[in-house]
């Protein structure tokens, strides 16, 4: 099943190589798949690339998703400060929509990081 997910992601990259609008989201999804395979270094690279591309496009929701995943990875490595420093500014950029799943998820992670400090 995980192999099928990777295949789907790779097909999406190839089929829409010129359509960059969803690329940060696809990179984040692939990064999370890498984590499920225990390949945190590949996940980290995908999350960083997703954040970079989302920032270039000013796609804050995609940036938030990638940053939340990256912050979770940092937290799992014991780097709570790095996780918070990455995620907090992106979360704080938003002024509305706090009832959306992405912002709730980011806020829950920030709260967890604060409690663990």
Q: Return the structural class.
A: mainly alpha
Here the CATH topology equals Serine Threonine Protein Phosphatase 5, Tetratricopeptide repeat
The low-pLDDT segments are none
For the biggest sheet, the summary is: none
Please estimate the helix content. over 70%
At the first level of CATH, the class is Mainly Alpha
C-alpha-based Rg, rounded: 14 Å
Average pLDDT confidence is 92
Order of helices and strands: HHHHHH
Shape: globular
Task: Please indicate the percent range of residues in DSSP E strands (runs of 2 or more).
Answer: under 5%
Under the CATH scheme, the architecture is: Alpha Horseshoe
Count of individual beta strands: 0
How far apart lie the N and C ends? 37 Å
CATH homologous superfamily designation:
Tetratricopeptide repeat domain
Q: Can you count the helices?
A: 6
Taken together, the total number of domains comes to: 1
């Amino acid at each position: 099943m995980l192999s099928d997910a990777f295949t789907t992601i790779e097909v999406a990259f190839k089929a829409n190589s010129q359509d960059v609008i969803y690329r940060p989201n696809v990179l984040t999804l692939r990064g999370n798949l890498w984590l499920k395979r225990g390949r945190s270094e590949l996940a980290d690279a995908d999350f960083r690339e997703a954040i970079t591309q989302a920032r270039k496009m000013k796609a804050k929701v995609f940036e938030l998703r990638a940053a939340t995943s990256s912050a979770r990875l940092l937290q799992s490595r014991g780097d709570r400060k790095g996780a918070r420093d990455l995620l907090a500014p992106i979360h704080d950029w938003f002024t509305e929509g706090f009832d959306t799943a992405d912002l709730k998820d980011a806020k829950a992670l920030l709260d967890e990081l604060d409690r663990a400090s």
